[in-house]
Amino acid sequence: MIKMEKSSLGIWFLIVASLVSCLALLCADYLTFGGIYGITLLFSNFTTSIDASKFVSVNSSQVSSSSRMAVSPVPMIDSGKTIEKEGQLNIIDSVSFLRSKSPSITESTEIAINDGAEILTGGQEEDNCLGRYIYIHDLPSRFNDDVIKDCRKLIKWFDVCPFMANSGLGPAVENSRGVLSEKGWFMTNQFFLESIFRDRMKGYECLTNNSAMASAIYVPYFAGFDIGRHLWGYNVSIRDSLGKTLAKWLRERPEWKSMGGRDHFFVAGRIAWDFRRVNDEQDEWGSKLMFLPEFSNMTMLTIESTPWNNEIAIPYPTYFHPSSDDQVRQWQNRVRTRTRTRRFLFSFVGAPRPNMTGSIRGKIIKQCLSSTRRCKLLNCHENNCDDPVKIMEVFQDSVFCLQPPGDSLTRRSIFDSILAGCIPVFFHPDSAYTQYLWYFPRNNTKYSIFIPEEDINKKGVSIKKVLAQVRKKKVKRMREEVVNMIPSIIYADPSSPLLNLEDAFDVAVSRVLERVGRVRRNMKEGKDVAAVRGSTIKLSENIRVN
Predict the structure, then answer these.
(1) Which of 165, 298, 313, 459 could pair covalently with 305 via S-S, beta carbons 3.0-4.6 A apart?
(2) Are strands 37-39 and 398-403 parallel, antiparallel or unpaired?
């Protein structure tokens, strides 16, 4: 009896062993079968085991367009490695891996993923990053970090070294005397957007090391810092030097060839006119960076744009860089409930421009001084306007905040006033309405008041009378619109971005991806590249689109 049991066990052992061996051979053959793509799908909770039922075989010539599903590339890892993600399928990615399994795969075999590669996944859930992957150029340090090493030279008239703290956010505000909330406030310089944006970009959730899979390519060039240190006392050759060197570097990169740089974008922390010198006369202002052929194809995100179609205005950095959604909502509730404590009808924070022809600042200051009980003036010739507590206190105490042009058409003060829940008053349409199209409501009457410069200069219109005529119900609606704009005009702390709210960085990246997508589609269809504003860019015949 015992012998029979042992014999039966031996037979069953042989049967099971044979089945396992056959299964292993079938799986191996399945992966290496010529001309067939083998893609191993592993559930994150079972990455140590191999389940033959999870193997998917796809013949690209047999897949119809209607049945194809997108699979995202593996971000920020070497090919052949696996990322584990809770509750999602993980894919061992990369064409090189597939070719190692099937040598018959040729270069002509296309794997498209949205704007990169696309493979059948057997109906599995799509990656949340599909169509949102961004590749960051690994620039030599001379194009960014070396530029800011000697911070004393970044702006001739000021020592900006203290503002380098906290990755460009500046020193934390220690004592706001109750004017500000407890956390998230920094003494941020208005020209430090490049540093802040790069740090946010490093933490972007959909980065990839494979440029072919990217929907857009970020160039972390410190263009504003570069030109800022050379604006005064340097010849045009020095002002143009680093930009020309970068243009050559980019042009020689393989990532450049697919779209001629039209999928590339960079950030400039200065106004766009600083990069559009029209000739090479030594007394002309700025550099000619944006007239270089390579940069003419790229998208520039800048604090103030010109009418050229590849420039997009995004918000100046404010003093508030929250590290959680709750900090934003708490601040919104705070400024929303200050209705009864806004002591002044309107205010102006700034300095006169006596040497600027046509400037209305002198007349605005005069009107404010003649309305002492209704207007609050913080004259920056007499006060420290780098103090966020002073500035935010004035704005929080005001119903309307005057935003006349200064050295340029736009002002950082626009965003500080919105942050304080103060309704902005504009005097030139190019101060906001033609600038921040990605951020401000199209209907400008919903959040702002417009008084033409001409009414102040030539007609002597009283600002106090215009603003006093705005009905309380409308003021309430406008303030609510302004308060709702706050999340999208601030840049969150790069060390802890927001979870559910979109900040200025999130909006910029999302819209850049949409913009590049439109350009790519137009190029594929052989159309002229449609301009966002201004004239169109003629599609070069020698540009190939992947």
Answers:
(1) 313
(2) unpaired
Look at residue 175 in the predicted model and tell me its pLDDT.
84
pTM of the model: 0.76
Rounded distance between C-alpha atoms, residue 486 and residue 420, angstroms = 9
Beta-strand runs (E) in 197-341: 216-218, 264-268, 299-302, 311-313
How far apart CA 335 and CA 343 sit, in angstroms, is 14
- The residue-averaged pLDDT of 100-120 equals 40
Residues 6 or more apart in contact with residue 288 via CB below 8 angstroms? 236, 240, 275, 276, 277, 278, 280
User: Does the pLDDT at position 43 exceed 60?
Assistant: no
Q: Which residues contact 178 (CB under 8 A, 6 or more apart)?
A: none
**Cα(396)–Cα(341) distance, rounded to whole angstroms?**
8
370 in Cβ contact with 426 (< 8 Å):
no
CA dist 271 → 147, 189, 277, 309 (Å):
18, 14, 12, 15
CATH 3.40.50 is right for the domain spanning 327-489: yes
Bridge partner residues of 344 (DSSP): 398
| Contact yes or no for 184/501 (Cβ under 8 A) | no
Query: Helix (H, G, I), strand (E, B), or coil: what is residue 39?
Result: strand
Query: How far is the C-alpha of 501 from the C-alpha of 498, rounded, in Å?
Result: 6
Say whether 166 sits in a helix, a strand or coil.
helix
pLDDT band at 229 (very low <50, low <70, confident <90, very high): very high
**Cα–Cα distance, 230 to 280 (Å, whole number):** 15
Predicted confidence band of residue 259 (pLDDT cuts 50, 70, 90)? very high
How many beta carbons lie within 10 A of that of residue 275, not counting itself? 26
Q: What is the pLDDT of residues 344-373, one digit of tens each?
A: 999 999 999 888 888 999 999 999 999 989
Residue at 491: amino acid letter:
Y
Domain ranges of the chain: 1-31, 33-131, 134-317+504-514, 327-489
Amino acid identity for residue 85 in this structure: K
- From the centroid of its chain, how far is CA 242? 23
Q: Which two tokens stand for residue 398?
A: 């005001």
Mean pLDDT of the chain: 81
Question: Whose CA is closest to 201, among 490, 493, 494, 439?
Answer: 494
Distance from C-alpha of 403 to C-alpha of 288, rounded to nearest angstrom: 29
Closest residue by Cα to residue 206 from 109, 113, 301, 80: 113
Which has the closest alpha carbon to 499: 248, 308, 362, 323? Answer: 323
Token pair listed for 413: 């003060």
Residue 269 CA to residue 492 CA, distance in Å, equals 17
Residue 11 three-state SS = helix
Three-state secondary-structure class, residue 322: coil
Residue 10 has a pLDDT of: 56
Tell me how long the chain is.
Answer: 546
Instruction: Give the DSSP H or E segment for 41.
Output: strand 41-43
pLDDT class for 65, splitting at 50, 70, 90?
very low
